[in-house]
C-alpha cells in the first residue's frame, strides 16, 4: 500500500475484521435456519416469549417505586465494589494515602445509606 | 474674577447632582405629604436654573472648555467623569435650566405626582450631564439615561396611545444608541492603537490627535450619525417624534421639544464635527440633503395635520432641519445660527406646547377642526399665541429669525444649492402656522369655543419669561453670539485643519481633485 | 499470572499527590457543608426548623467566600499554581468564579427559604443538593484537566437535575427534571467524546500539558483534534444553552422551581462558562484560536439573534427570562470569542453582573408566582406598580439592567464585552449584539409596560413578599446599582484575576 496505515489504525483493523466476521457468521446462521426450517404460521407463535409462560397484561406495567429505590441502593454498592476491588489488589502500592482515600469514599457512601435509612427507605412496608 | 471663583466651585457636578438629589428626596417623602412634591421639584429645578445662569455670568468669551471637572471613573478603560462647557454647550445648559422650571410650573400631572416630579428631575440632571460630558462614555451614559424618565413620563402621564408612543420612542432611540455605543468603543480602541498610549474616551484628546484611519472614521461617523439623526430627528428616522410629542403630557412635550431634540444636534456638532471632521466633510452632502428634506417634508406634513400638537411636532422636524443645515454648512455663521436655532426653537416650541396644552386642558380636544374663534373668548391667549407663532415662523425682530437667518446665510456660503431649497421651508413655515392660527383663533366662536376661559394670571406668569426671551433674543442676540463665537471659530478652524477638500477660507466645499490642485498651486 | 505480576511491578511507584488542603478549601467547605448537613439531619431526632437549613447553607457559602480571600492574596503575591498533581489550578479566575458561585448559592438559598415555606415543601435535600452542585461548579471552574472538568460538570449537573424535579406536586417540574436530565446526559456524552478525541490527538487530558504539547508540536493531521474541539463545544454549548443547543432551556427554566431556576441561571452558567473559557481560550487559544473562532462566532450570532427574537413572542415571564438569558449567553460568548485578556476579564465581569441581575429577576418572579409557583403569565404582572410599587420598581431596575441601561451593571457588562470584541476585530458582531440587545429591550419593556401601564383585570393582587426573598432582591438591586455606578473594584478584580489566568496558560 502506498499509504500505510498507522499502528493505531491497524489495531482497529483487527477489530473491524472481527466485527465483520461476526456479522457474516450471524447472517449465515440465520440464513441456514431459514433455509432448512418448515414454515407454518400460527397466531400463538407471534406472542412474546416469556420462558413458556403466557404473557399477562400490558407491556408498560408499572412497578412499585420501592423496587427502584432498592435497585438504586444496590447499584450504589455495586459501584462501590467495582471501585474497591482494584484498590484492594494494589493495597500496598497506595499505602496509607490509599487507605485514607478509600475511607473517605466509603464514609461518604455510608452517609448516603444512613440518610436513606433515616428516611425509612430500608423498611419494606 | 468670577471665573477664578467659579473654577473652584464644581458648578457642573452640582447641576447634575442637585436634580438627582431632589428626585431622591421626593422618592423618600411619604405619599401622604403630596403637597410637598411640587414645591420640592420646583425649588430644585429653579436652583439648578440659577446655577446655570450663574455659570452664564461667569463664562469667559474664549474658546476653551470652562468649569472643567475631571475625575477618574473606570480607570482600566480610561473613562473619567470629565465635564465642562464651551460656548456651544453653555446655552443648551442654560436652556435646560430655564425650561425645566417652566415645564414643572406649566402643568400638573393628572395622577401620581410623586413619580412624575421625581422622573422630571432625573431627566433634568441627565440632560445637563449630556451637554456637559466631555468623555464619550459619560456622554453615552447620560444620553441613554435620559430615555428612562422620558419613557415613563410619556407612558404614565400621556394621552391616547401613550404606551405605543413611549415604547416606540424608547426603542427607536435605543436602536440608534446601540450603534453609537459600538462606535464609541471603536473610537476609543482605534485611538489607542493610533497613539500607542493608554485607552481613553476623552473627547478633547481624541479630537486633538485625529489618528483614526479615514475608512474607520467614515464607519464610526455613520454609526454616530444614525443614532443622532434619530434623536434630531432627521427624515426618514423621524417617525417616533409625532407620536411621542403628541401623546406626551404637556411637560413631556415641552422637554422633548426644548431639550431632547437638541441632544441630537448637539451630538452632531460634538461628534460629527469635533471628533471626525474629515468624515463629516466627506459625508456632508448626505446630511445636508437629509436636513433639506426634513425642512421641506416637515413643513409640508405639518400643513396637513389635523391635530394642533402634531402640527407643532412636525414643525420641530422642519426647524431641526435648519439646525442641521447650519451645522453642515461648516461655516462660522452657519454653526452659530444652528446653536441659535437650537436655543430659540427650545423656547418657542416649548411655549407653543404649553399653549396647546392650555387649550387642551380647557377644550379637551386638539383637533383644529373642533376649535374656532378662540380669539374672542381668550384674547390674552391669542396674543401670546400670535407672538410665539410669529417667532416660530421666523419674523425678524423675534427670536426665530436670527438663528434661521444665520443658518441660511451659512448654507449659502458653504452649501449654496441646499440653502436655496431650504429657503422654501421659511415660506412653508409661515403657511402652516398662520393657517393653523387662522383656523383656531379666527372665525366665529360657537358652543364650547365661545365659553373657553382665557389664560389665568398664573399661566401667564409661566409664559412670561419665555415671551420676554422671545422678544429680547430676537432684538438683541449679540450676547449669545459673542459668547459662542470663539468656540465656533475654533471648531471651524479645527475642521479646516483636519480635513481634505474643504477650506474654511473660501467657505465652500471643493472636490478632492480641486483641492489637490489648489494644494499644488500653493506649493 | 506473569502479566499480572508485570502490572504489579509497573505500578510499584504510583506517585501519591501532595494535597494542598488550603488551596482547595473553598471547594471542601462547600462539599463538606453539604454532606454534613445531610448527616446532621439524618442523625438528629425530630425535624429541624426550615430556617436552619437556609442559615446553614448561607453560612457555608459565606465561609467558602471567606476562604477565597487568603487564597486570592496568595495568588496575587506568588502567582498562579496548579495543585493536586496538576488536576486543579489555583488562579485568580477560578477564585472569582468560586466566589460568584457562592454568592449565587446565598441568593438562591434566601429565595428557597421563602419558597419552601410558601409551597409547604420542606427538607434539607434542596440545600444539600445545591451545596453539592455548587461544589461541582467550583470543581469545574478550578479544573486543570479535562477529566476533572467532566467530573465537576457531572457533580454540578446531577444535583441540578434532581433540583429541577424537586417540586413534587408540579407536573411541569417533573417534566423539567426529566428533560434536563435526558438532554444533559446527552450533552455529557458529547463532552466526553470530545475529551476522548482530544486525548487521542494530544496524548494528555491535562490542560497545561495539552497547551505545552500544542505549543511545541505541529499536528499535521489535526482532524482528530478538531473533532474533539467540536464535540466539546457541543457539550459545553448544551450547558450554557448556546443556540442551536438551547431547546431545553425555556422548558426547564419554566418548569423548575423558581429558586432553582435562579441557581441554574447564575451558578451553572458561571461554572460552565468558566470551564469553556479555560479550555478554549487558555488551552487552545494560543494555537487553535483561528480554528474554533469562526465556529464560536457562528454560534454567537445564532445565540444572540435567536435568544432575542424568540423572547419577544413569549407571554410567560419565566420563559421570557429564559430566552433573554440565551441572549445574555450570546454576549458572554462574545467575550470568550475575543480570546484575549480583555475578553476574559469582560466574560468574568459579565458573569458576576449577570448573577445579580438574574438572581434578582427570578426572585421577583418567585414572589409574583404565588403559591403553586404557577402565576408567571404576563397578565399576572398587571397593575403590580399599584399593588406592590416597591416590587415593581425592583423588577424595573433589574430589567433595565438586563437591557443595558447605563448606571446599572448590565450596561458596563455589555460595554466591557463590546470593547473586547471590537479590540479583537469583531466589530460587526458587536454591532449585531447591540441590535439584538435592542430587540431584547423590547421584551423587557413589555414587562415594564404590563407592570406600570396596563390596567389589571379585576382587583390587583398583592403578592406576599417574605423577608428572605426581600433581602435577596435588595442585595441584587444594590449589587446591580453599585457595580453600575462604581465598577472600579469589580473591574480591577476581573483584570487581576485574568492576568493570573493568562500566566498559568504560559
Descriptive report:
Chain A is mainly α. In chain A, 66% of the residues lie in helices and 0% in strands. Chain A is built from three helices and no strands. Chain B is 76% helix and 4% strand. In chain B, helix 3 packs parallel to helix 5 (113-132), helix 14 (284-303) packs parallel to helix 20 (416-441) and helix 16 (332-363) runs antiparallel to helix 22. Chain C has one domain (24-505). In chain C, a hairpin with a 4-residue loop joins strand 1 (81-83) and strand 2 (88-90). Chains in contact: A-C, B-C. The interface between B and C is medium-sized, with 34 and 32 residues.
Sketch the major β-sheet of chain C.
2 strands, antiparallel
Low-confidence stretches of chain C: 1-10
Question: Percent helix among the residues of chain C?
Answer: over 70%
Cα-to-Cα separation, first versus last residue of chain B = 47 Å
Number of helices in the DSSP assignment of chain C? 20
How many domain modules of chain C?
A: 1
Instruction: Give the terminus-to-terminus CA distance of chain C.
Output: 45 Å
Strand content of chain B: under 5%
**Secondary structural class of chain B:** mainly alpha
Quick recap:
In chain A, 66% of the residues lie in helices and 0% in strands.
How are the SSEs placed, and which strands pair?
The complex is a heterotrimer of chains A (125), B (523) and C (506).
Chain A: H1 7-36, H2 65-89, H3 91-118
Helix pairs in contact in A: 2-3
Chain B: H1 2-8, H2 11-28, H3 34-58, E1 66-74, E2 79-85, H4 87-106, H5 113-132, H6 136-145, H7 147-157, H8 162-195, H9 203-209, H10 214-231, H11 240-247, H12 250-275, H13 277-282, H14 284-303, H15 308-328, H16 332-363, H17 374-377, H18 379-393, H19 400-414, H20 416-441, H21 448-451, H22 457-475, H23 478-497, E3 502-503, E4 508-509, H24 512-522
Antiparallel strand pairs in B: 1-2, 3-4
Helix pairs in contact in B: 2-3, 2-5, 3-4, 3-5, 4-5, 4-12, 4-16, 4-23, 5-6, 5-7, 5-12, 6-8, 7-8, 8-10, 8-11, 9-12, 10-12, 11-12, 11-15, 12-15, 12-16, 14-15, 14-20, 15-16, 15-19, 15-20, 16-18, 16-19, 16-22, 16-23, 18-20, 18-22, 19-20
Chain C: H1 2-10, H2 25-43, H3 50-78, E1 81-83, E2 88-90, H4 92-119, H5 125-142, H6 146-164, H7 171-202, H8 207-216, H9 223-240, H10 248-255, H11 258-283, H12 285-312, H13 317-338, H14 341-368, H15 384-387, H16 389-403, H17 409-423, H18 427-452, H19 467-485, H20 488-505
Antiparallel strand pairs in C: 1-2
Amino acid at each position: 500500500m502506498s499509504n500505510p496505515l498507522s499502528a493505531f489504525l491497524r489495531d482497529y483493523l483487527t477489530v473491524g475484521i472481527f466485527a465483520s466476521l461476526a456479522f457474516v457468521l450471524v447472517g449465515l446462521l440465520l440464513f441456514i435456519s431459514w433455509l432448512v426450517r418448515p414454515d407454518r404460521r400460527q397466531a400463538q407463535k407471534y406472542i412474546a416469549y416469556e420462558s413458556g409462560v403466557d404473557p399477562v397484561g400490558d407491556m408498560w406495567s408499572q412497578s412499585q417505586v420501592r423496587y427502584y429505590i432498592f435497585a438504586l441502593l444496590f447499584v450504589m454498592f455495586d459501584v462501590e465494589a467495582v471501585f474497591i476491588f482494584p484498590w484492594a489488589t494494589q493495597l500496598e502500592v497506595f499505602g496509607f494515602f490509599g487507605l485514607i482515600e478509600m475511607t473517605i469514599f466509603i464514609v461518604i457512601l455510608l452517609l448516603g445509606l444512613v440518610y436513606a435509612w433515616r428516611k425509612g427507605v430500608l423498611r419494606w412496608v | 474674577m468670577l471665573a477664578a471663583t467659579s473654577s473652584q466651585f464644581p458648578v457642573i457636578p452640582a447641576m447634575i447632582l442637585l436634580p438627582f438629589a431632589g428626585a431622591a428626596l421626593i422618592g423618600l417623602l411619604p405619599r401622604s405629604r403630596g403637597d410637598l412634591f411640587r414645591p420640592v421639584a420646583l425649588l430644585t429645578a429653579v436652583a439648578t436654573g440659577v446655577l446655570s445662569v450663574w455659570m452664564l455670568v461667569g463664562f469667559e468669551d474664549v474658546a476653551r472648555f470652562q468649569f472643567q471637572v475631571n475625575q477618574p471613573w473606570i480607570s482600566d478603560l480610561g473613562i473619567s467623569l470629565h465635564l465642562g462647557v464651551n460656548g456651544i454647550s453653555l446655552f443648551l445648559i442654560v436652556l435646560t435650566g430655564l425650561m425645566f422650571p417652566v415645564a414643572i410650573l406649566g402643568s400638573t400631572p393628572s395622577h401620581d405626582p410623586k413619580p412624575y416630579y421625581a422622573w422630571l428631575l432625573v431627566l433634568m440632571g441627565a440632560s445637563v450631564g449630556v451637554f456637559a460630558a466631555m468623555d464619550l462614555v459619560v456622554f453615552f451614559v447620560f444620553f441613554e439615561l435620559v430615555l428612562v424618565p422620558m419613557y415613563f413620563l410619556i407612558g404614565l402621564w400621556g394621552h391616547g396611545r401613550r404606551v405605543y408612543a413611549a415604547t416606540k420612542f424608547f426603542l427607536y432611540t435605543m436602536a440608534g444608541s446601540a450603534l453609537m455605543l459600538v462606535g464609541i468603543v471603536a473610537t476609543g480602541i482605534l485611538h489607542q492603537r493610533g497613539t500607542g498610549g493608554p485607552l481613553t474616551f476623552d473627547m478633547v484628546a481624541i479630537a486633538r490627535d485625529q489618528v483614526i484611519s479615514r475608512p474607520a472614521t467614515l464607519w464610526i461617523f455613520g454609526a454616530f450619525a444614525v443614532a443622532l439623526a434619530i434623536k434630531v430627528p432627521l427624515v426618514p428616522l423621524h417617525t417616533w417624534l409625532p407620536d411621542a410629542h403628541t401623546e406626551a403630557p404637556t411637560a413631556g412635550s415641552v422637554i422633548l421639544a426644548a431639550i431632547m431634540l437638541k441632544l441630537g444636534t448637539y451630538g452632531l456638532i460634538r461628534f460629527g464635527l469635533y471628533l471626525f471632521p474629515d468624515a463629516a466633510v466627506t459625508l456632508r452632502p448626505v446630511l445636508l440633503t437629509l436636513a433639506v428634506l426634513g425642512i421641506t417634508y416637515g413643513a409640508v406634513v405639518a400643513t396637513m395635520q389635523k391635530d394642533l400638537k402634531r402640527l407643532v411636532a412636525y414643525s420641530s422636524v422642519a426647524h431641526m432641519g435648519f439646525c442641521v443645515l447650519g451645522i453642515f454648512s461648516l461655516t462660522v455663521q452657519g454653526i452659530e445660527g444652528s446653536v441659535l436655532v437650537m436655543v430659540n426653537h427650545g423656547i418657542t416650541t416649548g411655549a407653543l406646547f404649553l399653549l396647546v396644552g392650555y387649550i387642551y386642558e380647557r377644550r379637551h380636544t386638539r383637533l383644529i377642526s373642533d376649535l374656532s374663534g378662540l380669539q374672542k373668548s381668550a384674547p390674552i391667549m391669542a396674543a401670546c399665541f400670535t407672538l410665539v407663532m410669529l417667532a416660530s415662523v421666523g419674523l425678524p425682530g423675534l427670536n426665530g429669525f436670527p438663528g434661521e437667518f444665520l443658518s441660511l446665510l451659512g448654507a449659502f456660503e458653504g452649501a449654496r444649492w441646499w440653502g436655496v431649497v431650504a429657503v422654501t421651508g421659511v415660506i412653508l413655515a409661515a403657511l402652516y402656522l398662520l393657517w393653523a392660527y387662522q383656523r383656531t383663533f379666527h372665525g366665529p366662536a360657537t358652543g364650547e369655543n365661545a365659553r373657553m376661559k382665557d389664560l389665568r394670571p398664573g399661566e401667564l406668569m409661566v409664559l412670561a419669561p419665555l415671551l420676554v426671551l422671545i422678544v429680547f433674543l430676537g432684538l438683541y442676540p449679540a450676547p449669545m453670539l459673542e459668547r459662542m463665537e470663539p468656540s465656533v471659530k475654533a471648531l471651524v478652524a479645527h475642521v479646516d485643519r483636519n480635513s481634505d477638500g474643504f477650506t474654511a477660507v473660501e467657505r465652500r466645499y471643493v472636490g478632492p481633485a480641486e483641492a489637490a490642485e489648489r494644494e499644488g498651486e500653493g506649493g | 499470572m506473569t502479566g499480572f505480576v508485570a502490572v504489579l511491578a509497573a505500578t510499584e511507584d504510583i506517585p501519591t499527590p501532595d494535597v494542598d488542603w488550603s488551596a482547595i478549601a473553598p471547594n471542601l467547605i462547600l462539599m463538606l457543608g453539604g454532606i454534613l448537613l445531610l448527616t446532621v439531619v439524618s442523625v438528629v431526632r425530630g425535624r429541624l426548623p426550615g430556617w436552619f437549613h437556609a442559615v446553614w447553607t448561607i453560612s457555608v457559602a459565606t465561609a467558602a467566600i471567606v476562604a477565597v480571600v487568603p487564597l486570592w492574596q496568595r495568588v496575587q503575591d506568588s502567582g498562579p499554581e496548579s495543585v493536586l498533581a496538576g488536576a486543579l489550578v489555583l488562579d485568580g479566575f477560578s477564585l472569582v468564579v468560586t466566589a460568584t458561585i457562592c454568592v449565587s448559592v446565598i441568593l438562591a438559598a434566601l429565595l428557597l427559604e421563602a419558597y419552601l415555606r410558601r409551597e409547604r415543601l420542606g427538607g434539607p435535600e434542596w440545600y444539600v443538593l445545591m451545596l453539592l452542585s455548587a461544589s461541582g461548579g467550583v470543581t469545574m471552574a478550578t479544573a486543570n484537566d479535562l477529566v476533572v472538568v467532566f467530573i465537576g460538570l457531572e457533580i454540578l449537573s446531577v444535583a441540578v437535575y434532581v433540583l429541577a424535579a424537586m417540586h413534587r406536586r408540579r407536573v411541569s417540574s417533573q417534566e423539567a427534571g426529566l428533560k434536563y436530565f435526558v438532554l444533559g446526559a446527552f450533552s455529557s456524552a458529547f463532552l466526553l467524546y470530545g475529551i476522548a478525541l482530544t486525548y487521542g490527538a494530544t496524548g494528555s487530558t491535562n490542560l497545561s500539558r495539552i497547551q505545552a504539547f500544542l505549543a511545541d508540536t505541529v499536528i499535521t493531521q489535526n482532524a482528530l483534534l478538531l473533532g474533539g474541539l467540536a464535540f466539546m463545544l457541543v457539550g459545553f454549548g448544551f450547558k450554557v444553552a448556546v443556540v442551536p443547543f438551547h431547546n431545553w432551556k425555556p422548558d426547564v427554566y419554566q418548569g423548575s422551581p423558581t429558586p432553582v431556576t435562579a441557581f441554574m441561571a447564575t451558578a451553572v452558567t458561571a461554572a460552565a462558562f468558566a470551564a469553556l473559557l479555560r479550555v478554549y481560550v487558555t488551552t487552545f487559544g494560543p494555537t487553535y484560536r483561528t480554528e474554533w473562532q469562526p465556529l464560536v462566532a457562528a454560534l454567537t450570532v445564532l445565540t444572540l439573534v435567536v435568544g432575542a427574537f424568540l423572547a419577544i413572542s413569549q407571554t410567560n415571564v419565566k420563559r421570557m427570562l429564559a430566552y433573554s438569558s440565551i441572549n445574555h449567553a450570546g454576549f458572554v460568548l462574545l467575550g470568550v470569542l475575543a480570546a484575549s485578556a480583555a475578553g476574559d476579564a469582560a466574560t468574568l465581569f459579565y458573569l458576576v453582573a449577570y448573577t445579580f441581575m438574574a438572581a434578582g429577576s427570578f426572585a421577583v418572579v418567585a414572589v409574583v408566582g404565588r403559591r403553586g409557583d404557577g402565576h408567571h403569565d404576563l397578565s399576572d404582572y398587571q397593575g403590580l406598580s399599584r399593588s406592590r410599587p416597591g416590587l415593581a420598581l425592583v423588577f424595573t431596575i433589574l430589567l433595565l439592567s438586563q437591557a443595558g441601561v447605563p448606571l446599572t451593571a448590565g450596561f458596563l457588562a455589555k460595554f466591557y464585552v463590546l470593547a473586547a470584541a471590537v479590540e479583537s476585530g469583531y466589530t460587526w458582531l458587536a454591532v449585531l449584539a447591540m441590535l439584538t440587545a435592542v430587540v431584547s429591550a423590547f421584551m423587557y419593556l413589555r414587562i415594564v409596560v404590563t407592570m406600570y401601564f396596563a390596567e389589571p383585570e379585576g382587583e390587583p393582587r398583592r403578592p406576599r413578599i417574605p423577608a428572605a426573598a426581600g433581602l435577596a432582591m435588595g442585595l441584587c438591586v444594590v449589587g446591580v446599582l453599585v457595580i453600575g455606578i462604581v465598577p472600579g473594584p469589580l473591574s480591577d478584580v476581573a483584570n487581576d484575576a485574568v492576568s493570573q489566568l493568562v500566566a498559568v496558560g504560559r
